[in-house]
Amino acid sequence: MMQPRSRYRKEGALDHDEILSFVEGRYVSAPEAMWRLSEFNLSHKSYIVVRLAVHLPQQQPIVYQDGQEAQAIERAALRKTTLTSWFELNKNDPSVHNISYSDIPQYYVFYKSTINGKKRQRGGQNVIGRLSVVSILDTERCYLRMLLLRRSGAVSFDDILTVNGLRCITFQQACQEYGLLRVEHVICGFGEVEDVPDLWVKHQVSLCEDFVHLYSEQTGPHYALADIEELLTSYNLSLQKLHLTTIDLPASVLERANFDVVEEQAKANSYTMQLNSEQRNVVEILLSAVYNNAADTLKCYFLDGPAGTGKTFVYSTLLHTIRGRDDDVIPVASTGIAATLLIGGRTAHFVFKIPIDLNATSTCNLKPNTKEADMLLKTKLIVWDEAPMTHVHAFLAVDRLLQDPTKCKELFGGKVILQGGDFC
């Protein structure tokens, strides 16, 4: 059933705009019509979730409008949060000392206007208190949250910091005094492991196992450290910052370490045998462009075709063929789901470090003289799936990025690039 929208002129004549009715009209299916005619419930909520504040002393979040910062600060100084209200409850009501912060919403209601706690009259069994997840990068807030989940009866931040009569300097130290932390289980990329080299020595055999199997006992640890550093770069860390031995392996070597040349050659032959005439023509054109150094060779291609026409199969054939020749290729996609269909694929934003906020002059955040930049310089082909889903400003940023390491002012730095997708 379509419920059209009609418009009336001032004189009362009906002005029926079919296009507007189609755009603004509302379709009601038979099941929905039956449900509404029967007056069944449109929604149901079994539990109430109360969000509880987790903030450091005098660091509660403040919402303000431009130009009213001072007034917002004054209001925040007078206004309580759920955390400070919990402190007040513990001061004034000894009966709540055995109730943890996360359980207090079952017994008290916090009103938004004042955030004062009032004893709940009924319905507490259907209320859940939730402390927002805090990243370990926000170190002190993270450890404060850990303490709030386990402490009860606290009347102030100083009370939370006090363990066995001694006041700790930090919330992390308080967690350690309570035995809530085990140094070996803290990820060095986020926490504060005191001796990362010792952690490496303890677990070196397990961390190097796969690389030793692929290479040798002598070179396996080098590849393991290089792989660890590649992961650390995502968090602005390095082996040097963690006082580990720095390994200088090109990014292309690390990328190729995940692929066996002989196996790639076998897959390339198998895939090539299954190509139809149009797919084979595309593969031959791209391989000719990759390995033809003539100045007039076309470098930028677009593979157009609706879903189910075999675009991904063409990409896979090219990837196996080039890797089977011990060369580098970078497969990317505009979305994470599409990237999973490409062997070794990642999102274009991750590989090229494309910024989130884009404009016509945006530049990628990939630093020169890094392993990632070295990988871009040495790659033979870039495969970019679902390209039509990417904004033109992203392509302009990647174009500028590739022109820098290659010292080439051609489109995409003269790199052979295959973009694919459809406009359906």
TrEMBL record:
Its cofactor is Mg(2+). The keyword Iron does not apply. Keywords: ATP-binding, DNA damage, DNA recombination, DNA repair, Helicase, Hydrolase, Nucleotide-binding. Gene3D superfamilies: P-loop containing nucleotide triphosphate hydrolases. Signal peptide: none annotated. GO terms for molecular function: 5'-3' DNA helicase activity; ATP binding; hydrolase activity. It is an enzyme of class 5 (isomerase). It catalyses: ATP + H2O = ADP + phosphate + H(+). Its EC number is 5.6.2.3. PANTHER family: ATP-DEPENDENT DNA HELICASE (PTHR10492:SF57), PTHR10492. This is ATP-dependent DNA helicase. It comes from Araneus ventricosus (Orbweaver spider). The lineage of its organism: Eukaryota, Metazoa, Ecdysozoa, Arthropoda, Chelicerata.
